[in-house]
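Thread: quick sanity check before group meeting

JM: Hey all, I'm pulling together slides for Thursday and realized we never actually wrote out the predicted structure for the chain we discussed last week. Dropping the sequence here so it's in one place. If anyone has concerns about the input, flag it before I start.
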Amino acid sequence: MQAFTNPDIYELDFRDLGTIWEAARIAGVKPGTIRVWESRGKIKRVQLDSRGALYHLPTVKLASEVKSGRPKAA
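JM (edit): ok, ran it. Output follows.
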């Protein structure tokens, strides 16, 4: 599975961060899918001081556009 990395913490625009629910809405999936992607290393959370877990929404959107699975045989 391809991994998608977040920008450096100093390059983040806080308007691009969202909760797991916002990440799921952007990706068109359920929040459980976001958790699976995270556990498999496809995406990573952005951990800020006391805000809890947030996701970089443009990275989540990019990850949602790449479909997993095996390529079709030629």
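AS: nice. The first helix runs from residue 20 to 27. The CA atoms of residues 56 and 64 lie 13 Å apart.
JM: adding both to the slides.
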